[in-house]
Design a protein that fits this description.
This protein has 2 domains: about 160 residues, 3-Layer(aba) Sandwich (Rossmann fold); about 40 residues, no CATH class. About 30% of the residues lie in helices and about 35% in strands. It contains 5 helices and 8 strands, in the order αββαβαββαβββα. A 6-stranded mixed beta sheet has the order 1-8-7-4-2-3, covered by helices on one side. A two-stranded antiparallel sheet has the order 5-6. Helix 2 runs parallel beside helix 5. The N terminus is likely disordered.
Length: about 220
Amino acid sequence: MLNRRSTRLLAAAAAALVLAACASTKLMSSWRNPQYTGPAMKKVAVFVMVKDDNLRRFAEDQMVQNMPPGAVAVASHRLFDRLEEDHEKVMGRLVKDGFDGVLVSRLVALDKSQTYVPPQTYVTPVAVPAPVVAPYPYYGRFYGYYGPGLATAYTTTTAPGYTVDNTTAVVETMLYRVPDDLPVWSGTTKTLNPQSKPEMIQAIADLVESELIKQRLVGTPAR
């Protein structure tokens, strides 16, 4: 019985540690240009700067789907077959197509680290025997109380310490005004132990959408 309980406790502790290491995406910083006093942008081009073309298309489409209400957003892969290196060509196309803003996301850091989890001690109760049937209370004498007391004593089990490998992805997203390239907003997100790229991208898109709505920079601001 003791071994089973100890095993269950250790398994529960391990599961809690695994859940603690699961992916979590948070907004680290949000900056708005105090010099920008213009209206909310209505037509925004979305660029995600990654070499993997399939990942780029997926990420841009997710960002487009998460644009604030009232905005027309277009993924860059629908404007250019590949990431165009000629800035003037890109800007010329955006101006020609009537864009007044451009949203750009890129990975700025991918850090790996280790976290040491110290040994954990768990308290496990010993099985309690059936009460003693007697013509007088079993605790009437010191021994009568002391014996069952031993039966309900607790024992301890210690799990050894170990290290957990962590990966942190930092993504920066910038909003610029077209055609003068004025930086209007910047947001930096941090994802701890991303389990999958799609999940991380969706989480980032949700955070960016919330900030753009909050800052009233894109779409139709709520009254």
